[in-house]
Amino acid sequence: MARALLRIDPADDVAVALRDIAVGETVDDLTALDAIPKGHKIALRDLPTGQAVRKYGHPIGKATTAIAAGSHVHSHNLATALGGEEGYAAPATFPAPVTATPAPGFMGYRRTDGRVGTRNEIWILCTVGCVAHTVRRIAEAANRQFAGRVEGVHAFTHPFGCSQLGDDLGHTRKLLGALASHPNAGGVLIVGLGCESNQLDALLAAAPGIDPSRLRSFTAQGEEDEIEAGLAAVEALVEIAERDSRVPCPVSDLVIGLKCGGSDGFSGLTANPLVGRIADKVSDGGGTSILTEIPEVFGAERLLMARATSPAVFEATVSLVNGFKRYFIDHGEPVSENPSPGNIAGGVTTLEEKSLGAVQKAGHAPLAQVLAYGERTHGPGLALLEAPGNDAVSSTALAAAGATVILFTTGRGTPLGFPAPTLKIATNSDLAARKPRWIDFDAGVVLEDRTMDQAADDLMALVLATASGQPTRAEQNGEREMAIWKTGVTL
Which residue ranges does the record assign to the SAF domain (predicted)? Predict the structure, then answer.
C-alpha cells in the first residue's frame, strides 16, 4: 500500500498527508483524531500551547492551543510567530562562490553585449498606459504582416507612466528600460504618447545597454498615423532580427528565474525542491538563477543569509528583508499577511511554512548577488531580487533582471505567462492531469514512481529544450503579460 504520510525532517512535529485521511483511520501507527485533507498536516506528537511547531526541521509558527497527536494542524490551532524588523548576526565564515563545471548547453541567440537570448522576438513597449491599446494594435498587425520572419511580435503593456512621482516613476522607468535591453528581444519598439510623466527620452537614457541598431521609438502625438509608423518601425527591426540564428551556448549563458504561485501543501515537497535541483545545476554550470518574492522569504531568510558569499552580500540581504518588512509596517500591514486563501485551502498555514517551502527553489548554491527592483544580474550564481510576491509583478521583475526562462511552480494552477518563456511545474499529479494545457511538467511524480534525481534530469532536459526554442504551454496559449510594481502616490 502507498504511504499515507510524509515526515520531511526527523525533528518535525508534523507530517503531510499524501492522501485524504479519515477520522479514526490509523496510518503509520498514528490514529487520526480529525479528517486530514490531502496536503495538510497531522500532529506526530502532543504539542502544548505556545510551543514552536516544526516542519522542514524549522519552526513554522506556535501552537495556539494544546494539540494532541493525530490532530489536524492548521489555521485553527497554529499561528505565525513573525514580527517586524529583526537583527541578524553575520555568519562566522562565508562560502566561496561556485566554481563552474562545464555542462551540456542549449541553442541560443548571442547578442552583441555577450548575453544570450532563448527567443528572437520583436518587443513593443509603451511609456504610458494611454498608448497601451495602440501598441497592441501594432503588434497584432505586425504578426499578420511579418509572420514567420521572427519568433513573434509581442506588445507588453501597463497602465502607468502618467501622474507618477519620484521613486514610483523611477521604478516604472527602470523596469521598462531593463525589459528594453532583454536578450530575448531581437528588436525593440518603444511608443510614447508625448505629454506623460515617463518621457521617452528619459526612459531611453535610463535603459542599460540597449543596442541602438535594434531600437526604434516615437511618440504617438508626433505621428500622423501611429499604427503605420509602428508597422514601419517593426519592419525595420524584423529586417535586422531575421538574420539572427541560434548557436551552441553553454549552460553558463543561461539565466533562470525562480517563481512559485498558488502554492499548496506539496509545493515544498515536490516542485520547489525539484526546481532547487535545477538552480544548482545551472549554478554549477556557471549560469545564473534568480530568486525573488521577498515577502515569501520572511521566516526563512536566515537560510539564505547563511549562504552569502561576502559581508557585502550578507548586509544587502539584511537590508532588503528588513526594508521590505518596513514597507509593510509603514502601510499599516502586518508582515505575515500571507498565505493567500488558495494557499490555506491547499494546506499551507503560516508565512513561515510557506517561506521554508518557497526558498527551496533556490537550491543550495551560495548567494552571490542582491539586486534592486529593475536591476540586471551582473554575474553568475544565485541572485536575490527585490520584488513582491504578486505573480505578474515578480515574474516581470525576473525577466527585467535578465531571466531568459522562468520556472514557475504551482499547486493550484494559473494560465498566466510572462515576457520570458515560462514553464509551469505542477506540485501534484492531479493538477497536471486536470490542466494539461497549463502545465509543462508534473513534479508530483517524485511521490510516485520517480526519484528526485531522475525528475531533475527530466526537468533540466525540458529547460534546455525550452531555451533552444521549444514553446511552453503559456506561449502556445498566447499568454504573455507584464506588470509593474506600483509603490507611490498617483497625482
Answer: 12-79
